[in-house]
Design brief:
Blueprint (H helix, E strand, L loop, with lengths): L1 H15 L10 E12 L25 E4 L1 H4 L8 E4 L5 E7 L7 E5 L4 H7 L2 E9 L2 H10 L1
Parallel strand pairs: 1-5, 2-4
Antiparallel strand pairs: 1-6, 2-5, 3-4, 3-6
Length: about 140
């Protein structure tokens, strides 16, 4: 399972790495959201805290987020890359939140409860990558 995750992350980084010859295939859309943080601990999630609602496995160190279900309709679906204000890394949508939450992301912070508490609750700006159908065709042509 860990090998599959590593391969998926490597493939994602390869695709999203821009070179002089390759154009970024994503259109980055801005969005202001409320951001909190969570850990893979049963009292914060459920009795199987290392499996996301999409079926992905969680391991400390992974750059994953959960999104409120209303954001799924905007294009923040499974494996969507997200740039989060205040972080250098790109995060991937790997989990869904309970339907009671709206316009919210939850940043995965492994088992570091203090880091999640220190993050707290903030209104922040994010950019999320979507690939438009015509961009997919152009990207394929450039290969």
């Amino acid at each position: 399972m860990y090998i599959k995750i590593s391969l998926a992350i490597s493939a994602f980084l390869l695709i999203t790495t821009c070179t002089e010859k390759t154009k970024d295939p994503y259109t980055w859309k801005p969005l202001k959201v409320t951001a909190t943080a969570y850990n893979s601990l049963s009292y914060q999630t459920n009795d199987n805290p290392h499996i996301t609602a999409f079926g992905d496995s969680l391991y400390p160190g992974l750059k994953y987020i959960a999104v409120s279900r209303d954001l799924l309709g905007l294009g923040l679906t499974h494996n969507t890359p997200v740039k989060i204000e205040g972080f250098k890394e790109i995060y991937l949508v790997k989990d869904k939140m309970h339907s009671r939450w709206k316009n919210k992301i939850d940043i995965y912070m492994g088992v570091d409860v203090q880091a999640a508490k220190d993050w707290g609750r903030k209104k922040i700006n994010i950019l999320y990558g979507v690939i438009e159908e015509e961009e997919v065709a152009k990207f394929e042509e450039d290969k």
